[in-house]
Amino acid sequence: MNIQWKIKRYNELTIDELYNILKIRAEVFVVEQNCVYQDIDDKDIFSFHLIGIDTDIKGHKNIIAYLRILPPKTNYHFKEASIGRVMTVNSVRNQGLGKELVERGIEFTEKEYKGKGIRISGQLYLEKFYNDLGFKTVSDVYLEDGIKHVEMLKSV
User: Fold this and answer.
1) Which domain covers residue 24, as residue numbers?
2) Phi, psi dihedral angles at 154 (to 5 degrees)
3) Which of 6, 152, 156 lies closest to 84, judged by CA?
4) 90, CA 20 to 30 Å: which among 24, 30, 102, 137?
């Protein structure tokens, strides 16, 4: 894989990029996880969008990894910035791409929002993954859209 990484504000996304982001988010978070919820939540407009793009042998550009970065006080009014909608498409999982994606998201967020920290709502089964990236669990387990989550914080 030869992945091209881009980070864009909402108004910098092309129509095709936005369409593909929403399509793969629905595939992963609604269909794969069998979770009916409102993915389009008006927060995309205020976010940065980190996308990993792979070009296939026919020259088609496909988004295979994605996360969004919300400014402080945008997500649940946290004083910290927030990373969410972290995902890779099924065909590239378990190859280390998710770790690279989150590391790039952390690096950008820490530069963009110096001194603010990063707060996430992580799915419980990914708690160790996020712990290994420097996040500490700061809540009890709770249900979000029917899935067990924990709130996690990466301090500066």
Assistant:
1) 3-154
2) -115, 110
3) 152
4) 137
- Confidence (pTM): 0.92
Q: Which helix (H) or strand (E) holds 7?
A: strand 3-9
Round to whole Å and give the CA distance between 87 and 25.
8
Residue 122 CA to residue 137 CA, distance in Å, equals 9
Residue 72 to residue 82: CA distance in whole angstroms: 7
Alpha helices in 14-66 (DSSP H): 15-25
Q: What CATH number has the domain bearing residue 101? A: 3.40.630.30
Q: DSSP character for 140? A: -
Number of structural domains (the chain) is 1
Give the Cα separation of 78 and 118 in Å (integer).
9
- CB burial readout 42-53, b (16+ within 10 A) else e: ebbeebbbbbbb
In angstroms, the CA 106 to CA 85 distance is 14
| Three-class DSSP category at 48 | strand
> For the segment 39-87, what is each residue's pLDDT rounded down to a tens digit?
888 899 999 999 999 988 888 889 999 999 999 988 767 799 999 999 9
Does residue 2 register a pLDDT over 90?
no
Q: How confident is the model at residue 30 (pLDDT cuts 50, 70, 90)?
A: confident
